[in-house]
Amino acid sequence: MSDGRREPTDGLEARLPSATRPRVRRVVGLVDTDSFAKWGAHLLADAPAHWQLELLVVDTPRSASPAQLRSAFRGLDGRLGHLAAAPPAPLGVDALVDRLRADPPDAVLVACIGPVAELLVDEVVRRVPRRPVLLTGLPGISYPAKWKGVFFRARADVFVLHSHREVRAYRALASAGGIEPAFALATLPFARSRGQGGLGDERAGGRGDERGRDAVVFAAQPSVPADLEDRRRVVGWLVETARRHPEWRVVVKVRAAAGEHQTHREQWPYPELLPADRPANLVVESGPMAQHLDRAVALVTISSTAVLEAVARGVPALTLTDFGVSRALINEVFVDSGLEGDAVDLVEGRFGTVRPEWLHDNHFHPPAEDDWADRAEELMALRDAGALEVRPAARRSGGGALRRAWERKNALGSADRTAIGVVALVLGTPVRTVKRVLRRLRRVVLRPDASDAALVLPPRSQRDAVGAGTGGANRTT
Fold first, then answer.
1. Euclidean distance between CA atoms 109 and 297, whole angstroms
2. Of 18, 296, 351, 422, which is the most exposed, with the fewest CB atoms less than 10 Å away?
3. d(C-alpha 37, C-alpha 29), whole Å
4. SUPFAM superfamilies this protein is in (predicted)?
């Protein structure tokens, strides 16, 4: 029985008649930050077996460190498995484009933060002959849809998302903005069950062999919640949980060591907020989330994609709603999932199990519904025929070479050492500041209810769910 992934063929394609043998395709992935590196590599690892894969790291001020890359590449299949032991050294944009120009691949996956993705897509379109099919996407939970996500990636040929709900939301947002990116569906690599055919029996919340499970894992996020006092409150809940449950290791799972960058900037790292007299069973650890979930009694977070990894493995989870449910907290997707809770639930050891009716629309569709690779194959065939069209950009502003220099400097920061980049920075910074002020004023005056901070729902708890008879909390004692 298959889980939807294409299994290695061990030379089977070479033995097939040429009329039925898939054409070998060369696909290059470009990644930058920790989360995009993990997503891009694991997405490609699930690509068709006849794709020859290469992965390169883009040199930017926020590029993942070698340690972050080793963690991101852990668990890759044979085609990319070597990356965990020897991550590629970052290359500048010009060096990357020169490699693509010298030997254009069939497709390029641009797995990078927005400004870098926009820059790379533009460079490939303008400078690479017989330009490759351009794939892009977002690395985790991407609901509700955000305009910047579409704006920076509008020229890509395939925009990969990971749930039917996300595809609908982004398609509506793009259409309202007057652009039509080609959205496609892929199972989020980290949300794929270790079993066959999807979640199977794990949907009931069974975690298999309980031996060795001793950890409540808190998946820390760099910018959620963003406020210092809110983050101190979270630390207080974790301290109390550790004191109340000495039989558990309460693990603050971080994605970056001191000095390392992440996809989102972190002003108040949790390790720096932990009190000196914290319980000995409250610890800070890094490393691949999969390894932590192997020992997890439960996964706790505000809205990390790690929740989906936990659900896929049948590990109970809790998405803390003490700060409410809002766009800024990226937790609207979990409404009525069965996983919502609060600090009281956490301290009392009450965790949620996912509701079956939530799954299909939210990241756990059957793998047979994924169409991203098929879309890419169709476009590569168009490229072979010289019929691949250039999609229009969402950016309407002019400026020519100077504008491109500004965007390049904005994306690459100190990694851009061009003279025109310095000129663009000097001329463009005052203009950008004025535009930002005007945008904020317009948002406040014309659309006061459109703030990212606006609550969609008040806090919710596992106790509410039990009282309403809509689901059962998984209490671990």
1. 36
2. 18
3. 9
4. UDP-Glycosyltransferase/glycogen phosphorylase
